[in-house]
Amino acid sequence: MALNFFASGEILYKRTPDLGLLRCVDASEAAKFLEQIHAGACGSHMNGHALARKILRAKYFWMTMEHDCCRFGVPESIITDNGVNLNSHLMREICEQFKITHRNSTAYRPQMNGAVEAANKNIKKILRKMIENRKGWHEMLPYALLGYRTTVRTSVEATPYLLVYGTEAVISAEVEIPSLRIIQEAELSDVEWVRKRIDQLTLIDEKRMTAVCHGQLYRQRMTCAFHKKVRSRTFKVGQLVLKRIFPHQDEYKGKFAPNWQGPYVVRKVLSGGALILSEMDGTKWPKPINSDAVKRYYV
């Protein structure tokens, strides 16, 4: 075991299987480091396993650690919900100017914008742990975003910061207790630092491709798990259906009121489970609705 450690001056390092070096810290430094990583400026109040991985990525180590603890550019298309601010005249002008295809998700179907909703859910969880007064959430939002972006995401096995900039962010704890990376970069000249940064940006495509592969495998696992418990539902043109009344709709009258309204007529069946409905008098709805929000109506 002693062969995995070596001393450089007064600092002890541990060798990793991939020939990397982790700086060893004592008990007081470890406690301070845990506090900074877990609840500091870059902390997202993550669980023990994620906390340990984040510390390892910062190149620190102590014997009881496991126990204690895109490129910038114009998108081709974007998917948003049906909010008024996202369907305004200004939004249409921007999309036309930059030739962006703007699509709206199905009404009352947050799963259509799943990646964004999942990120928002995680950021809300972080904010709940950081704020004491709900009115001050906007003041802690930058810290919550920093913690989210410097934490490894399970779906891609990398941090969002790494995938954008090609290197890991320098967290505040690394400045107070210099890691090996900070010590090495402090000794580099400006020319050497620029050359190293260029090398990192050169290799960023490979890191992103690896993240894409991890993301595809993760989505396949999630899809298989979802299909095991889902039941397929098919609708045909001309069928009568009822539409669910959601709590935020004007038609919602409380817990003891009916949960469904209608009947309506199915006018068109779209791909992906969306339907175009119409009133019984033939008035067609302008926007589609997901089949999860309707059920068959039998006369």
Helix and strand layout, with pairings?
Elements: E1 5-8, E2 11-15, E3 21-24, H1 27-39, H2 48-57, E4 60-61, H3 65-68, E5 77-80, H4 89-97, E6 101-104, H5 114-130, H6 137-149, H7 160-165, H8 172-176, H9 180-186, H10 190-202, H11 204-227, E7 240-244, E8 260-269, E9 274-278, E10 289-290, E11 294-296
Parallel strand pairs: 3-4, 5-6
Antiparallel strand pairs: 1-2, 2-3, 7-8, 7-11, 8-9, 9-10
Helix pairs in contact: 5-6
Q: Could you explain the architecture of this structure?
A:
The chain is an alpha+beta fold. The protein is elongated, with a radius of gyration of 26 Å. It is built from 11 helices and 11 strands. Among the domains are: 67 residues, Endonuclease III, domain 1 (Orthogonal Bundle); 57 residues, Roll (SH3 type barrels). The model has no long low-confidence stretch (mean pLDDT 78). A hairpin with a 5-residue loop joins strand 2 and strand 3. The longest helix is centred in the last third of the chain and has 24 residues. The chain has a 5-stranded antiparallel β-sheet, with no helix packed on it. A 4-stranded mixed β-sheet has the order 1-2-3-4.
Short overview:
The protein is an alpha+beta fold and 299 residues long.
Spatial order of the strands in the main sheet? 10-9-8-7-11
Ends: how far apart? Answer: 77 Å
Helix content: 40-55%
How would you classify the helix and strand content by structural class? alpha+beta
What is the CATH class name of the domain at 2-68? Mainly Alpha
List the main descriptive attributes of the protein structure presented here.
11 strands; Integrase_cat-core; Endonuclease III, domain 1; five-stranded antiparallel β-sheet; four-stranded mixed β-sheet; 299 residues; SH3 type barrels; Integrase catalytic domain-containing protein; alpha+beta; 40% helix
